[in-house]
Amino acid sequence: MAELWGINVKIVNNTDYDIAITGAEIDPLTIFASNIVEWTEIGKSVAFTTDFSTSAITSYMNGSVLWNSTDGMVVNRGDLATQNISMEIFVNGMSEFSQTQTTNGAVTVCTWDDIIDGGNLTLTFNAVS
Predict the structure, then answer these.
(1) Are 41 and 25 in contact (CB under 8 A)?
(2) Which strands make up the sheet holding 35-41, listed edge to edge?
(3) What's this model's pTM, rounded to 2 decimal places?
(4) How far is CA 112 from CA 64, 99, 116, 119, in A?
């Protein structure tokens, strides 16, 4: 029997935007404003996207999450002209990693060796005034 492996993903949406997730194990998925969703990804090479929108604004911000044996875990909140959304990143694998992204561009959170046995990823999106 194959060894069970996974990353438990939790996304906390503390914004006024709905977040559409594509490319994930549970695709398609929408995390509505002020909601939390959790699931487990069992793929060792995963890439999914986040698309923030409201009924009045489509594709306000697009971000991405990926992990694999080459890149480790890379998270991109998405690019904004006005930095009104922050993203707290927490990874619990072989070690723990925590940081907050408040600017444009991707962040390499940890190496593959840090999540080689699986773990937890929590992304918390917060409105910034």
Answers:
(1) yes
(2) 35-41, 7-14, 119-127, 85-92, 96-101
(3) 0.93
(4) 17, 17, 6, 11
| Domain CATH code at residue 31 | 2.60.110
pLDDT in tens, 94-104: 899 999 999 99
In a domain, 2, yes or no: no
User: What's the rounded Cα separation, in Å, for the pair 17 and 74?
Assistant: 23
Question: Rounded to whole angstroms, how far apart are CA atoms 72 and 100?
Answer: 18
In the chain the first and final C-alpha atoms are separated, in Å, by 51
| Domain assignment of residue 1, yes or no | no
Q: What are phi and psi of 13, to 5 degrees?
A: -105, 95
